[in-house]
Amino acid sequence: MKCAPFEYVRPTSVDDVLAALAEADGEGKILAGGQSLVPVMALRMARPAVLVDVNKVEGLSDLECDDGSVHVGALVRHRTLAEQTAHPLLAEAARHIGHTAIRTRGTAGGSIAHADPAAELPVVAVATGATVTVAGADGDRWVAAEDLFAGPLMTTLDPDEMVTGIDFPVPTRWGFAEFARRHGDFALVTVVVAEVDGDLRIVVGGVGPVPIRARSTGAETLGDELTPTGDLHGSADFRRGLAIEMARRALASAGIQG
Ligand SMILES: Cc1cc2nc3c(=O)[nH]c(=O)nc-3n(C[C@H](O)[C@H](O)[C@H](O)COP(=O)(O)OP(=O)(O)OC[C@H]3O[C@@H](n4cnc5c(N)ncnc54)[C@H](O)[C@@H]3O)c2cc1C
Description:
Uridine Diphospho-n-acetylenolpyruvylglucosamine Reductase, domain 2; 14 strands; alpha+beta; 5-stranded antiparallel beta sheet; 258 residues; Uridine Diphospho-n-acetylenolpyruvylglucosamine Reductase, domain 3
């Protein structure tokens, strides 16, 4: 199938992006790496009247280290995240995203805004207590990652807002484990363990509508907290079992007795 007709604009500043979204009056969509949006447009599951290409917007492709955090501009590509050394957990997570072509185009801002429950970066964002910078008509606002994700492919962003960057605290201890059927596939379950400022979090992706922060800090008790649903990739019990095993591995790689 081909995309439905749309108007295409390519602003070069955040202000112009916001103006284009406002003018589109809820019918506009930001185009970043296009790795999630273009396939759904081609299937006509999304039919934006205006496509606002943000790839030429200046100042959103930088990665900066600052006081225990790494600031990732919205247009930083997954490949850059995978290759940087300032935030080893982010690098490990980014290496697990799709294939080379997807990592070369896909962006951090796009992944966070797309809010796929099986995606790696939202899980890292919640586990590290990341803060998302959101630009809108009234200026910038800062949203804790766990308050951004509202459901599968749903966020608390307004249609005329834009993610401009994410601040990921660098954890003192961390572990990452995921299970995918084949290399490059979306994971069935991802577990990230991160300790930031003495606060240890275990966060699980793929077992609910958003990344789930566990109350427990042990792999065995984690299973009692999760209520995954079964689908064609596996039963609910299979996903729960995977989550326990991935948590065990993530805790072990963080050097924590699970
Ligand atoms: C074959 C394949 C395999 C993949 N495997 C994985 C995987 O294993 N793990 C994984 O995490 N992802 C995977 N992806 C998705 C990939 O990571 C995408 O890059 C990511 O989900 C979206 O980023 P993008 O820059 O391509 O966004 P786009 O596709 O351009 O946009 C996605 C959505 O986010 C919105 N958006 C984009 N940028 C912003 C912004 N700055 N502010 C507000 N809204 C914005 C768009 O309007 C759109 O609704 C895969 C994709 C493909 C095609």
